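Please complete every field before forwarding. Incomplete forms are returned to the sender.

SECTION A: IDENTIFIERS
Entry label: holo-239
Bound molecule: magnesium ion
Molecule representation: SMILES string

SECTION B: INPUTS
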Amino acid sequence: MGERRFDLIGIDGDDTLWHNERDYVEARERFGRMIALSGVAAGPDELTEAINRTELQNIRYYGYGVSSFVLSLIETAIRLTDGRIGGRDIAELLEVAKSMLTSEVELFEGAREALEALSGTYPLALITKGDLLHQRSKLERSGLARHFRHVEVVSHKTPDVYREILSRLGVEPSRFLMVGNSPRSDILPVLALGGSAVHVPAALSWAHEEEELPSGLGSRCVVLRSLLDLADTISEWSA
Ligand SMILES: [Mg+2]
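SECTION C: PREDICTED COMPLEX
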């Protein structure tokens, strides 16, 4: 391996290292059955659209994560049923949230191997968005915690947030690489600062996180199909 090209590698958690969105997909389906039983006629797309709209409006109040999601489900249910949603249904939504918060952490193929290979050479930072307690508990249960020198659970992933983390850790943006599934959260803000990025698209991602990556990003952005290739890609980058 040649000279080290990066002083810090940041890695996203949800839908990059471990599955996440599929729990949300399942929760939206349960929500859809509940709404149908309450006599409201709405198709799956319409329901997803209604939930997403509420969630986006609520980010400024509750941030990202399961707690925010369930409050948005309850609010959407109240609106769609014109206030007729019952206490039992709300209790069921709260149970859905608790099962999401405690569901098994399942890693993507190659996640463990990639971190094992990289953590010998690079300081790694988990940079993840969501509920503090939930994100920390997922990291503990993932068995990956020992590979990370830093853990940053943030409310938003904007250029300013990345800049603050890098300045606190004493890392030049040009010496920082971020790995993640979300163009909006993991890739574009880091490229905007002058850093580099590896985009690993997930089969399932929240619609809000999807955004077209512009073409012509050049040598600072690589797209990988799987984490299995991550360590080799980074070491070739460094050579
Ligand atoms: Mg993610």
